[in-house]
Amino acid sequence: MARQPVIWIGIGIDVGKRRHHACAIDTDGKVVFSRKVSNDQAAIEALLVRAAEAARDVRWAIDLTCSYAALLQVVLTSADQQVVYVPGRVVDRMSGVFRGEAKTDVRAAKVIAETARMRGEDLTTVTATDETTAELARLVAHREDLMADWVRGVNRLRDLLGSIFPGLEAAFDYSTRSALVLVTGFQTPQALRDAGEATVIEYLRDHRAWAPGIAAMAATAIEVAHAQTVALPSETRTAILVAGLARRLLELDREIKDTDKLITTVFRSHPDAAIIESLPGLGPILGAEFLTATHGGVGPELGGFATPGRLAFYAGLVPVPQDSGRISGNLRRPRRYNRRLRRAFYMAALSSLKVGGPSRAFYQRKRSERILHTQALLALARRLVDVLWALLRDRRMFTITAPQPAIAA
Predict the structure, then answer these.
(1) What is the dihedral of CA 272, 277, 280, 286, to 10 degrees?
(2) Phi/psi at 361 (nearest 5 deg)?
(3) Which of 220, 270, 263, 211 minimizes the C-alpha distance to 392?
(4) What DSSP designation does 65 have?
(5) How far is CA 361 from the centre of its chain?
């Protein structure tokens, strides 16, 4: 006799690169089935059929939302399934509650399913990602990689240049294009002295350095060249490395700018872009980071953030109590939050101080209360969360003056 379907099962999926492992449990924690699932559409759809045969109500839980889980997420959300996210750190800690110490896909899937069964209301719901948000996620991740390469390259350039010409290394900011242009042509004191100030100026102009600063840069470069008359070890070979690295950084700078333009274009095609960008401090790049971190933004239905407090907690901007015994009132920084979202609001708070308005007034008021700069910025970031949530809820642009309440007829 065929087994009758139960009322509810929770299916935990330990996500893998080529295959996943799914474990289904009922309301009593009894295993209904446990099986491997290939990371392809047919296998995942077969798992959906198996789940429908086992229960009338199914809750899915996954431990990763990376690229390896993309196909799984799309198939499940397209079938209108309820999917929650169990962070890997939670899975690791919950594993200690269950018997045994083995680390296997089978056990991990069961722990994920049990976590969803016991604490499902505390977990974040995974929703379908629209085309714009998915594209922004790829672009933002690519930009992060480029920026990491940029920072590493600039630090390496300074180290190399400082080993043969410390005066030139200290004279300029090598995160700017003009300084990089300079060291593509001149890396040693002797090279600058031989060229002379007029030749350096001509070189900078020919390679499109920042025109207003060319004369001052050339004069400073010649001055530090005359201050060092000795050649340091490995100067010739290191100069070649410096020139090559500077050229690669200039190419990387162009790629970053092209990526920024593409992100701006895609971001502004999102229906919430105008509202997000209207808030002082949130430009296209930070706006794109907000959308990707919240899987498409708060939106007209507020997504999974029913209150601004939930959005702020997700961003790590809500202090967590740390009381013990008679000691109370202690607050600490939360450990579980979205780093990208926290960074977006922190940088937005910092950018909003460049112009006058409510943000600067709020920051100055906090500073007058003897609050440290970083703490004042975090308080401002928390305020920006409240404002942005309200703007998205009301579907309106930011204005300096508060909107007037509607008068009942």
Answers:
(1) 100
(2) -65, -40
(3) 270
(4) -
(5) 28
For 333, the token pair is 């920084």
Question: Pseudo-torsion of CA 264, 266, 270, 272, nearest 10°?
Answer: -20
**Mean of pLDDT values over 238-265:** 97
- Rounded to whole angstroms, the Cα distance separating 376 from 364 reads 8
Residues 60, 83: contact at Cβ < 8 Å? yes
Whole-angstrom Cα distance, residue 145 to residue 147? 5
Tokens read off for 160: 């190399």
Q: 335 phi and psi, to 5 degrees? A: -100, -25
What span, in angstroms and rounded, lies between the C-alpha atoms of 277 and 263?
13
Calculate the average pLDDT of the chain: 89
Quickly state the pLDDT bin for 1 (edges 50, 70, 90): very low
Q: Closest Cα to residue 192, out of 225, 158, 223?
A: 225
**The pLDDT of residue 350:** 95
**Tens digits of residue pLDDT in 352-386:** 998 888 999 999 999 999 999 999 999 999 999 99
Please report, for residues 53, 192, 214, the alpha-carbon distance to residue 9 in angstroms, rounded to integers and kept in the order given.
Answer: 11, 74, 70
Q: What would the pLDDT profile of 253-266 be if each residue is shown by its tens digit?
A: 999 999 999 999 99
Instruction: For residue 31, list its beta bridge partners.
Output: 25
- What distance lies between CA 101 and its chain's CA centroid? 33
| Tokens matching residue 193 | 């002295």
Q: How far apart are CA 290 and CA 343, in angstroms?
A: 9
Higher-confidence residue: 379 or 306?
A: 379
The Cβ-side half-sphere exposure at 10, using a 13 Å CA radius, reads: 23
Task: Report how far residue 32's alpha carbon sits from residue 23's, in angstroms, rounded to the nearest whole number.
Answer: 8
Give the tokens for residue 119.
């604490």
Residue 49, classified by CB atoms within 10 Å of its CB into exposed (0-12), middle (13-18) or buried (19+), is exposed
Is the pTM higher than 0.85? Answer: no
Q: 137 vs 63, 290, 388, CA distance in Å?
A: 19, 10, 20
Task: Name every residue whose Cβ is closer than 8 Å to that of residue 18 and which is 6 or more positions away in sequence.
Answer: 38, 39
Distance, CA of 86 to CA of 110 (rounded, Å): 12
Residue 94, C-beta contacts closer than 8 angstroms, at least 6 positions apart: 111, 114, 115
